[in-house]
Structures are given as structure tokens and as C-alpha cells.
Specification:
Blueprint: H1 2-14, H2 21-48, E1 67-68, E2 73-76, H3 78-90, E3 94-98, H4 100-117, H5 125-135, H6 139-150, H7 154-171, E4 173-174, E5 188-195, E6 198-205, E7 210-211, H8 215-222, H9 232-244, E8 249-251, H10 253-266, E9 271-274, E10 282-284, H11 292-305, H12 310-330, H13 333-336, H14 342-365, H15 380-390, H16 393-411, H17 414-431, H18 439-461, H19 466-498, H20 503-509, H21 515-523, H22 525-545, H23 549-558, H24 585-605, H25 610-618, H26 626-635, H27 657-672, H28 680-696, H29 707-724, H30 734-738
Parallel strand pairs: 3-5, 4-7
Antiparallel strand pairs: 1-10, 2-9, 3-8, 5-6
Helix pairs in contact: 2-12, 2-14, 2-16, 3-10, 4-5, 4-7, 7-9, 8-9, 12-16, 14-16, 15-16, 15-17, 15-19, 16-17, 17-18, 18-19, 21-22, 22-23, 22-27, 22-29, 23-25, 23-27, 24-25, 24-26, 25-27, 27-28, 28-29
Length: about 750
């Protein structure tokens, strides 16, 4: 429950009054959905609408037109991919299967040979055959036999030979002769061996593999750690191992090719980003042949174009949610110093939608970066100026940031965001200094200078040529001047449709030569003078406390227009005859109270801004009409109790500083006329007494005036009222001067 109240109070600080919250929520919600759809369309439109008809570009035919990328695409380089696959296949280890029977047979023969050399009897047939074979050895082998018979190291030599022979078979002896591969690319050999429970795989570096041709050298390396007194012993071991060792690792061509095919398939395609802003963007020129490589790029363009990027959509939506929530937070009353009305929220929504539609439309018309930046062709400052004049500068700055961030989301360029935002801030700056409509033309000139400086700075930062910088500065200057002219054209339309109290509208309404004031001067001269004097008081006080002084002046002019129908019923328009002397207090007070209601009706007929109408409604608040109330008490000759409510204005207490100041100025101006022989002390006592009475009666409880404001208002009123009663010297008559 507490969290719900907290969020509700936060929303109330941003959105209008409670009875209009539902309407405001609806506006904000619908605008969020529509804006999201527009942005998604803008970011995905390039995937839906193609610049080229892909069917016109056919393999090995000439290109009918230039094919230049208008977006970044991810292209699979098939040629490079094939090279990588071939490289991966070529580097895959050769597969050899170890035959254990070869090693067993060779070792068994060597054992029989060992027994024969050592003089042991060999009774088996295989041994006898072996002994015959041993006698038929080559000359070197015959020398080996003779050496082993006389050498004291025969037993040790035979033992070492058997160990080396077993190690060679365990490592694997292969023959690479006749294998059609590039051995320079081979780094490893894969041995498939039979082990307990199945087949084992051993990966051996090719440098550590024993090739049958290199076997003598391998044996010599093994014998480096063995020392014999007789140097012939090592030669004998080399000869014996070379004779009994056989190839036991046999090349498996089928398995090797299968492994290489698998390795090639596992290679990821070589992907390359082709950038639309690089030299790679030119896929093929008109009249050139469409090669296989070119055609693969065209196909990649098509695949990217028709593919909706889900990640991009999700990221866009989330980023826009952040921007939207951030903007709503900044529109907090504590920052903008006001609660936005429903029509103001609607204005922001409409302007934002128009801006988005224009941006997306121009983005499709001018998709290239030759305009640099894209926001250079957008009238961002127009919206900033209009919001500044119609709502406030604070709201305009916040909304300009929102528009610039949204544009960044669409175009995703920092230069586009920066120029849009700074140009808008320039529009706010020049708009706050305008006092008349014609000043908007001057504002356009100032804005053109500001835009030129901004774009010039970007040009120098990006190392552009001087000519290019001046061209873009010319565009920026034209953008600024055009924004001023467009603001001048659109502002009256907004003022009329929204009926907002812009400074220009208020200046026009403050013209005392308008028919309504001429009529007031004739029919109610006292009311006219009262309104003029009161306007001076209210305007001066509002200037001192930082309120809208022009609004207070205009509201003061119109606050009593309800008296025009019956001016004679009001004391300031009476001479010696008071019509109320013949009326009952209840009837008199009814006529007096009615001027507020009649004033509101006339204000609506004159199509006055709602802010002025509100002050007319609130300028008496709920105050008691004391003169007639006291008179009624004196004339009451019945037991019926007189209610103060019958003699009170049925209005609304002041809701703004301007309305409160107008109320106080009304009372002070009227009361000051009753002073006899006014002095500064009397005036100050009168003014402060009226302010205290209004405060004690609760009439100032719903506005934002502080005690410091009341003190400033008092001093301002005293100074101005004292000026009304300034003393003059008595000029002598001409007859007396001539004496």
C-alpha cells in the first residue's frame, strides 16, 4: 500500500489533476506505442525495402547497374573458407594402425637368434629354420655373428638390442614412402592401437615417429647414453636392430580421409563485414561481369535485407523505454516547476510524432551520410522554440533531449544526436529573449549563427576540408533561419488551438486600445482606473518575486469585466447616489458576487487564455463581502441566524502566485482610496493588514507564496501606492505673482 501511494504521488507531480489523469495516461500510453512502432520501422525498414531487384543480377552475366551497399552486411567469403578448410584438412594427422603380430614375430625371432648366439640348443622347427637363415646373412651379418661369438659383451649387447627393439615396436615403425600428402604440413601422426577393452589412440609428433628409413639413426641416438669399451659393440647393435625391426604401423588411408573431411567441415565459415561507408561497398559496377565471389556478396545482401533482426528490435525497444522513462522523470514538477496540463501533454505528443515521421521520411529519402550530420536537415529547433513559448523553457530543454536521444536511436550517430540537441538548446536560448512576434525572425538569424558554429566545430573535429565545412555551415545557417520562420508561422496556430497565454498573446491582450477597454472606460470609468492601477501593482510585485508579471498585468485588466453589465452597482463607478441604499443586503451581495461569474462568461466569449480565466475566477477567492455582511447583521430583526457563507464569494482560492498577487493588489488598490491624508506609515499598515487578513482567512493557503514573497509584495505595494499620493507644491495664482 505504501509503495502504491509513493508511485501515485510521483505520477501526480508529473501529470495533471486527478480527474484528468486517466486521459493523460491514455495519451502517454498511446504515444509510447506509436513512437515505438515508428522507431522499429525506421531501424528495420532497410531490411524490408530493397534498393535493388536481386533477380536482375545473375551469375556470370554483366551487371545491369551499379550495386553499392546501402547497409553493412555480414558476408561469408567462400573462397577464404575453402582455403581454411583445406588447410585444416591438410594439417590433420595421418592415421596408422599398429599391427601387434609383426612386433611379436620379430621379437620371437630375435630371442631364437639370441639363444643360438649364446650356444643354447634350439629344438623347435622355427628355431632351426632361423639358424639356417642366420648362417646365410650378408657379410656384415656374418661379421656380427663372428663378433658375438668372441666378444665378452655378447650377452649385454643382445640384452640392449632386445630392449631397443621392443621400444621401437612400442613407439611404432612406419614407412611414409608412396603416401600422397604434403608432409611439410603434417605435424602429428595418429596411431591406433589395440588396448585392453578396445582401441586406443595415441598422437605423436611427426619428429618423434620412427620411420624405417631413419631407424639406424634412431638407434644411434638411443645408444648415446650407453658406453662400451669396444666401439664395434654399438655398430653391432645398430645392425641387429636394423635387421630384426620391421614396419608395424600401416597407413589407414580411409580413416585419414574421413578425419580430414570432418576437420574441414568443423571449420567455421570466414565471415567479413562489408561496410556501407567503405570502398568494399561497391560490389560490382555496371557492365562488369558478375563473378562467383560477387554473386555471393549479392546473395548475402539479400539474406540480410529480408531478415528481421530480433536482437536489434529488442534492444531498440528497451533503449526507448529507458529514454521515455527518463524523460517522464525529468518532467517532474520539482524540475519543471509546473504540472503539465492534458493539452500540453497532447502538444508534446503531437510534436514528437510529427518530428519522428519527418525524421523517418527524410532518412529514407537521404540515406547516405553526405549531409553530415543527418539532423542538419531536421527542424529540431522549431519544436524547441514552440515548446519554450507555449509551455516553458525547462520543459523544452528536457523534451529536446528526448528528441535528440530518439534520433540517435534511429540513426545511431553521435554527430546527429549532438547537432540536434545543441541546435534545440540554441532555439530555447533565443526563444526566451523574444518579446514580440517579429523577434522570432531575429531569433532565426541568431539561431543560424549558433548552428553554423556548432557544425563548424564538428567539421574541424572530423578533419574535413575547409570547403566542406563551409558548405555544411551554409546548410546549418539555412536550417536556423528556416526554423525561426516556421516558428513564426506555426505559433499563432498553436496559440489559437490551445488558447495558451504566450507572451505574444498576452502582449496583444494588454493593449488598452482594444474595444473591451474602450467600452469599460465609457461605461465603468472607475473600474477602468481601478484595473489600470491594480495592474501596475500586480505586475511590479510579480516581477520582484519571479512570477509571470505579464500574465498578472493582463489578468488585472480583465478581472472585473463582469461589472460592465451593471457598472452602477459598484462603488468605484458611483458618484453621490448609491443604489444599494435601496436594496436589501442579500440582493446587493448577490449582484456583487455575480460579477465574477459574468466575468468568466465574458472572458470565454473573448477567448481569453485559460490562465487568465482562472485568475478571474480566483481573484476574490472565498472572501466575505464584509460591508454587506455587517449591514445585514445590523438590520437583522429576526431570530434567524445570518450565515457568512451567504455573503461570501463562491469562487476558488488562488492556485498560483499570479492569482494570489492579483487578489492582494485588488484589495490594496481599492482600500488605498479610503485613506485620508496618507503617509508612508499608514500605507504600510494598510497593506500589511490586508495581507495578514487574507492569510488568516486561508485565502493564500493553496498558492505557492512564501513569507519572504509576502514581505517583498508588501514593500512593492507600499512603494507604488505611496507614489499615487505623492505631494505636490501649491502653485501661486498668476494674480498673486504679479503683485
Amino acid at each position: 500500500m505504501r509503495n502504491h501511494r509513493t508511485s501515485e504521488s510521483f505520477i501526480k507531480r508529473i501529470l495533471p489533476a486527478k480527474k484528468k489523469l486517466r486521459y493523460s495516461y491514455l495519451i502517454v500510453g498511446i504515444s509510447f506505442i506509436i513512437a515505438n512502432l515508428i522507431i522499429i520501422f525506421a531501424t528495420q525498414s532497410s531490411n524490408l525495402f530493397l534498393r535493388y531487384n536481386i533477380g536482375d543480377f545473375k551469375l556470370y552475366e554483366t551487371a545491369p547497374s551499379n550495386f553499392v551497399l546501402d547497409r553493412d552486411i555480414l558476408w561469408i567469403d567462400e573462397a577464404a573458407t575453402e582455403k581454411e578448410r583445406e588447410k585444416a584438412a591438410a594439417s590433420e594427422p595421418l592415421v596408422f594402425r599398429i599391427n601387434d603380430e609383426v612386433a611379436a614375430t620379430s621379437i620371437n625371432k630375435f630371442i631364437n637368434f639370441e639363444q643360438l648366439v649364446l650356444g643354447k640348443n634350439i629344438t623347435d622347427t622355427e628355431g632351426k629354420q632361423f639358424s639356417l637363415q642366420a648362417l646365410e646373412l650378408e657379410q656384415l651379418d656374418g661379421q656380427v655373428m663372428n663378433y658375438l661369438k668372441i666378444s665378452p659383451y655378447s650377452k649385454l649387447i643382445l640384452e640392449n638390442t632386445k630392449e631397443i627393439l621392443r621400444e621401437a615396436f612400442q613407439t611404432g615403425i612406419i614407412d611414409l614412402t608412396g603416401i600422397e600428402v604434403n608432409l611439410a604440413e603434417i605435424k602429428n601422426i595418429k596411431f591406433l592401437k589395440q588396448v585392453a577393452g578396445g582401441q586406443g589412440v595415441e598422437l605423436v609428433e611427426i619428429n618423434n615417429v620412427i620411420r624405417i628409413q631413419d631407424l639406424p639413426e634412431w638407434v644411434k641416438e638411443k645408444l648415446q647414453t650407453v658406453s662400451y669399451d669396444d666401439p664395434i659393440a654399438k655398430q653391432v647393435i645398430v645392425a641387429l636392430v636394423s635387421h630384426f625391426a620391421k614396419v608395424n604401423g600401416f597407413y589407414d588411408k580411409n580413416q585419414t580421409e574421413l578425419d580430414r573431411k570432418t576437420a574441414g567441415e568443423e571449420v567455421k565459415p570466414v565471415e567479413k563485414w562489408l561496410k556501407a561507408d567503405s570502398i568494399d561497398a561497391i560490389i560490382v559496377e555496371k557492365g562488369k561481369s558478375i563473378t562467383k565471389d560477387v554473386f555471393s556478396k549479392i546473395k548475402a545482401y539479400w539474406q540480410h535485407a529480408v531478415k528481421v533482426n530480433v536482437n536489434s528490435i529488442v534492444g531498440t525497444v528497451f533503449f526507448f523505454i529507458i529514454i521515455f522513462a527518463f524523460t517522464i522523470f525529468l518532467l517532474n514538477k520539482s524540475i519543471t516547476r509546473r504540472v503539465l496540463k492534458s493539452q500540453e501533454i497532447l502538444l508534446l505528443v503531437v510534436l514528437g510524432m510529427i518530428y519522428l515521421v519527418i525524421s523517418v521520411s527524410l532518412l529514407n529519402v537521404f540515406p547516405d551520410d553526405k549531409w553530415y550530420p543527418f539532423s542538419l536537415i531536421l527542424p529540431t529547433a522549431v519544436i524547441a522554440i514552440l515548446i519554450t513559448v507555449v509551455i516553458s523553457a525547462e520543459v523544452s530543454v528536457i523534451y529536446s533531449l528526448f528528441l535528440a536521444l530518439t534520433l540517435f536511436l534511429i540513426k545511431f550517430e553521435i554527430a546527429t544526436f549532438s547537432f540536434a540537441f545543441f541546435s534545440a538548446i540554441g532555439g530555447v536560448a533565443v526563444a526566451t529573449r523574444t518579446k514580440e512576434r517579429i523577434d522570432l525572425v531575429k531569433a532565426g538569424i541568431y539561431l543560424s549563427v549558433i548552428n553554423s558554429i556548432i557544425i563548424g566545430a564538428f567539421g574541424f573535429l572530423n578533419n574535413l576540408a575547409i570547403v566542406d565545412i563551409f558548405i555544411r555551415m551554409a546548410w546549418a545557417s539555412g536550417n536556423g533561419f528556416l526554423c525561426g520562420i516556421l516558428s513564426l508561422g506555426f505559433l499563432p496556430i498553436l496559440e489559437h488551438r490551445l488558447n495558451t497565454p504566450t507572451r505574444f498573446r498576452l502582449m496583444e491582450l494588454s493593449d488598452i486600445n482594444l474595444p473591451i477597454f474602450k467600452r469599460m472606460l465609457v461605461l465603468a470609468p472607475g473600474t477602468y482606473n481601478h484595473s489600470i492601477n491594480m495592474a501596475n501593482l500586480a505586475e511590479s510585485a510579480c516581477e520582484e518575486i519571479g512570477a509571470n508579471a505579464l500574465l498578472a498585468r493582463v489578468a488585472s485588466y480583465y478581472h472585473d469585466i463582469g461589472k460592465l453589465d451593471q457598472p452602477e452597482y459598484f462603488i468605484e463607478n458611483q458618484n453621490s447616489y448609491n443604489i444599494h441604499d435601496e436594496l436589501k443586503p442579500t440582493l446587493s451581495v448577490a449582484v456583487i458576487k455575480s460579477h465574477v461569474k459574468l466575468g468568466v462568461e465574458k472572458a470565454k466569449e473573448l477567448n481569453l487564455p485559460q490562465a487568465v480565466i482562472d485568475i478571474i475566477t480566483q481573484h476574490h477567492g472565498k472572501a466575505i463581502i464584509t460591508y454587506f455582511y455587517n449591514r445585514a447583521l445590523k438590520e437583522n430583526d429576526t431570530v434567524k441566524k445570518i450565515s457568512p457563507a451567504e455573503f461570501s464569494y463562491p469562487g476558488i482560492r488562488p492556485q498560483s502566485k499570479e492569482a494570489a498577487v492579483v487578489m492582494l493588489a485588488d484589495s490594496v488598490e481599492a482600500a488605498s482610496r479610503t485613506l485620508k491624508k496618507p503617509t508612508g506609515t499608514k500605507i504600510e499598515k494598510l497593506v500589511w493588514g490586508i495581507i495578514v487578513d487574507k492569510f488568516n482567512a486561508g485565502e493564500l493557503s493553496e498558492c505557492n507564496l512564501t513569507f519572504n514573497d509576502l514581505e517583498i509584495i508588501k514593500k512593492t505595494f507600499v512603494q507604488i501606492v505611496a507614489g499615487y499620493f505623492h505631494q505636490r507644491i501649491e502653485y501661486p495664482k498668476l494674480r498673486e505673482v504679479n503683485r
